[in-house]
Amino acid sequence: MPVGPDAGADERVRRADIYCFVRSETPELGLSKLQNNLQSYGIWQEQFRGKIMPVIGDLSQPLLGLDEGEFQNLACEVDVIYHSGALLHYTYPYSQFKPVNVLGTQEVLRLASTGKVKPVHYVSTLAVFESAAYSGKVVTELDPLEHSEEMYLGYSQSKWVAEKLVKIAGERGLPISIYRPPLISGHSQTGVWNTDDIFCRIIKGCIQMVCRPDLDIMWDMSPVDYVSQSMVYLSHQKESFGKAFHLNNPQPIPWNLLFDMVKDFGYPLQKISLNNWQTQLERIDRENPLYPLMPFFLTRRYDKQLTGMEMYEEARRPKVSCEKTQAALAGSSITCPPIDDKVLKTYLSYFTGSGFLKLPEI
Questions:
Q1: How many CB atoms lie within 10 A of CB 7?
Q2: C-beta of residue 293 within 8 angstroms of C-beta of residue 90
Q3: For residues 100 and 114, what is the distance between their CA atoms, to the nearest angstrom?
Q4: What does pTM read for this prediction?
Q5: How many Cα atoms sit within 13 Å of 359 on the Cβ side?
């Protein structure tokens, strides 16, 4: 739901039918899949059953996996598109992301321009500024997206290309808005989180290893409630079209401070050098959640011979400004919660209550 003074927008959301892409064999199974997912996050409401219209498709396929008639009908029914679908993995190459993240975005833009013109609200990522050319520089919402050299992740490369496609569509007259979140953390009030993401894997993996690396990294995490509320509010402002928004946390938390807080929660975590931690990482078994991500933590790339963790150290990252986004949100009640001791305890309580983490031994 939107948050803020726009009561008309709030009512439009309540009346809206939501066409949701899902991979499934039938619409009935698709709706069940969506319901199970929403229930896992504790946000399913029975009234959604008549408002969510599952669309059985595939982002990686031409016409989004629909036949021409289905595609045309959908283009006639839909009034606005929120495109957040993407493949995310920290070790895949660009070639594996291209069908979903790039060509899928191309098909979404095709849908938006078929029949009546439909605005596209595209969920990008701050990782589009991953290029070494941005290291140490301030990037704002107004800065053009120019550099892609030495981007570490195939995911970041694919989102860079996809965002360029969206921008080109905007220059050709399609109403577009771009939203660039950082790592999206759990709900700031309930702690509910997608525990399969990299942050949760790092926390659990380090707890199992009983150690964590000493790094100069700022954890830029924005709670999902802030990101979603901001997107809904901004997408209902006419002034938002043609603009990009940075949904990063104005108060990021240092890596070492965050792990100190985890340690204070009761988990013994020895702080060791990155090299020593990588040596221990090489010895973990398949049960450790970091096992599938070992190439990210251990593989050295480019002439600098840096691993993924080193690429994200503070000296090599851009300084992302969100001042214009904060100004655009000034007419609402939406603010980004800092990842402080209170919020982190909420997250850790969810992790232990859901069984993702074992309670610390006292």
A1: 9
A2: yes
A3: 20
A4: 0.93
A5: 3
Beta bridge mates, 184: 222
pLDDT given at position 303: 56
Q: What is the pLDDT of residue 2?
A: 34
pLDDT at position 4 over 70: no
Rounded CA separation 161/157 (Å) = 6
Task: Give the integer Cα–Cα distance in Å for 4 and 320.
Answer: 25
User: CA 202, CA 123: separation in Å to the nearest integer?
Assistant: 24
Separation CA 360–CA 269 (nearest Å): 11
Give the DSSP letter of residue 301.
Answer: B
Region class of 290: left (phi > 0), else alpha (psi between -120 and 50), else beta: alpha
CA distances from 101 to 27, 85, 190, 305 (A): 24, 8, 30, 27
Question: Please, what is the end-to-end C-alpha distance for the chain in angstroms?
Answer: 41
**pLDDT tens-digit readout, 258-311:** 999 999 999 999 999 999 999 999 999 999 999 999 998 988 765 556 777 777
Q: What is the mean pLDDT of the chain?
A: 92
Rg (CA), the chain: 21
Rounded to 5 degrees, φ, ψ at 185 are -95, 180
pLDDT of residue 5: 39
pLDDT at residue 12 greater than cutoff 60: no
CA–CA distance, 301 with 295 (Å, rounded to integer) = 11
Type and span of the H or E element at 326: helix 323-328
